[in-house]
Amino acid sequence: MKNVSNLDRARILTEALPYIQRYNGRVVVVKYGGNAMISEELRDQVAEDIVLLNAVGVKVVLVHGGGPEINELLRRLGKQSEFVNGLRVTDAETMEVVEMTLAGKVNKNLVNLLGLHGGRAIGLSGMDGRLIRASQKNPALGYVGNVTGVNVKPITDLLDLGYIPVISTIGCDGAGQLYNINGDTAAAHIAGALGAERLFMMTDVPGVLRDKDDPSTLIRHLTVSEAVELFKENVIAGGMIPKVDCCIAAINYGVRSVVILDGRVPHSILAEILTDEGAGTMVEGDGSNE
Fold first, then answer.
1. Widest pairwise Cα distance in the chain
2. Confidence of residue 265 (pLDDT cuts 50, 70, 90)
3. Active site residues
4. Residue 167: CA atoms inside 13 Å, Cβ hemisphere, count?
5. 140-166, pLDDT tens digit by residue?
6. Which is it for strands 87-88 and 83-84: parallel, antiparallel or unpaired?
7. In the list 215, 220, 233, 281, which could disulfide-bond 208, CB 3.0-4.6 Å?
8. What is the per-residue pLDDT across 167-185, written as a single tens digit (0 to 9) for each?
9. In a domain, 14, yes or no
């Protein structure tokens, strides 16, 4: 914005006004991970976007992962990471590392970062207030969990007080056993339980591409039934399958729309919310008027 005139700045703000009014008082959930979490510059830009939205009355909930940090700590401990169908095999020792890394280091670093950019953030894990209730997904995966319920009260209490909740995806069962929850899955459940206006799933690709090797073939809008057809045509394949599955699940849980967003693009959250062009691929229920 350094080379933008004052008149152009005013015009940009005026054009954003209808979008600001639309989202004022509404809940949006951001699932944060990937390259946007690794790059210091992109981390700052994501924090700026979230703080700005919060300042204009949007109720932003940040749900985060932390896979690279977990991998690094396990490596330093001499323990190899093992994955099955994209899920981390989590024995008791690995679960301790997951808890320390997600609920401790990553969560508090994000809270601090938002604070440095003028935001008021408070960190939570799925253990706090039994926010994420979970059960074991598959004994072969160890302490990997399915989400069985979400207690939104700790989140809504913070939102009502003007805070930005920052949530790490660790769940627990009735006996207090902790579980490692896939970040996208947890975000879909949390957004659905909150009745969120929109869920942003930040990733490392532009969105759903008709040709995976050609970014110009980005599909900007999909209904659930259209997405199902693209599964059949093998257009949605590989690592995009679980992303779109989570989009559909979130819509079924009650989220109005989900956007698969390229976290490598600066200020992609603001571009999606405050412009006509948007960014990434939006998935909505059939019959939506969006």
1. 61
2. confident
3. 31, 34, 67, 184, 243
4. 37
5. 999 999 999 999 999 999 999 999 999
6. antiparallel
7. 281
8. 999 999 999 999 999 999 9
9. no
Beta carbons within 10 angstroms of residue 211's beta carbon: 10
Domain count, the chain: 1
Closest CA to 46 of 36, 54, 60: 36
DSSP letters for 10-67 = HHHHHHHHHHHHHHTT-EEEEEE-THHHH-HHHHHHHHHHHHHHHHTT-EEEEEE--H
Domain annotation covers residue 28: yes
The verdict on residue 43 lying in a domain is: yes
Q: Residue 13 falls within a domain, yes or no?
A: no
Amino acid type, 201: M
Which domain CATH number covers 141? Answer: 3.40.1160.10
What is the tens place of the pLDDT at every residue in 65-112? 888 889 899 999 999 888 887 789 999 999 999 999 999 999 999 999
In whole angstroms, give the CA distance from residue 160 to residue 164.
10
Does the pLDDT value for residue 289 go beyond 50? no
